[in-house]
Specification:
P-loop_NTPase; 194 residues; Rossmann fold; single chain; five-stranded parallel β-sheet; NadR/Ttd14_AAA_dom; alpha/beta
């Protein structure tokens, strides 16, 4: 058991450190990731938000982009897979914080009716594809919909439950980030980066 733990620790030290900022819609993920980036940390924006912003810039609408939920989620899975493959094969010792992860993409895909196969499950469980820490943001009091965030408060709560359960099913112990002012949330996370 000690040899296994030592081997896992050695592998973790030689792998890139990918940290996830997770939580329900409107829990402050994107604002927190932006603040962490402004403080000098390397970050990656949420893939879905990036894709929607690109579509809006091209004259589309979020509704039109998401009109075929299955096609949208398949595109998102391809983009997210490519992103996380790139991050997990980054140089050893590199650190990045991501706005959500492939786990959320899997949850949303299932909600759209897409069954994920055994290869996706194996990829999610691969020791070389483990997130160093998953910071799960507690929901904020204020909730508002935007061009990107189209879920109601009730749907957001359901998504939060599903995302939390999926991370736990995959063996992650979530670090819950309380609904603090953004500067305190940044400090909370920075103090827990390994």
């Amino acid at each position: 058991h000690e040899d296994t733990a030592a081997a896992a620790a050695a592998a973790a030290a030689s792998d890139p450190a990918v940290y996830v900022i997770a939580g329900a819609p409107c829990s402050g993920k994107s604002s927190l990731v932006d603040a962490l980036k402004a403080s000098g940390l390397r970050t990656e924006p949420e893939t879905a938000e990036r894709m929607i912003q690109q579509g809006l810039a091209s004259g589309s609408t979020a509704e039109r982009l998401r009109s075929d939920a299955v096609e949208w989620q398949l595109s998102l899975m391809r983009e997210d897979y490519a992103l996380f493959e790139r991050l997990f094969t980054s140089p050893a010792g590199s650190t990045v914080l991501t706005d959500t992860s492939f786990v959320e993409t899997a949850v949303f895909s299932r909600r759209a009716g897409i069954a994920l196969g055994p290869r996706v499950e194996a990829w999610l469980r691969s020791p070389r594809r483990r997130y160093r820490t998953v910071f799960f943001l507690a929901p904020l009091e204020e909730y508002y919909e935007t061009d990107v965030r189209v879920e109601s408060r009730e749907v957001a709560a359901s998504i939060s439950t599903d995302v939390q359960a999926e991370y736990e099913r995959l063996g992650y112990e979530l670090v819950v980030v309380p609904p603090l002012p953004i500067e305190e949330r940044c400090q909370f996370i920075r103090s827990r980066l390994l």
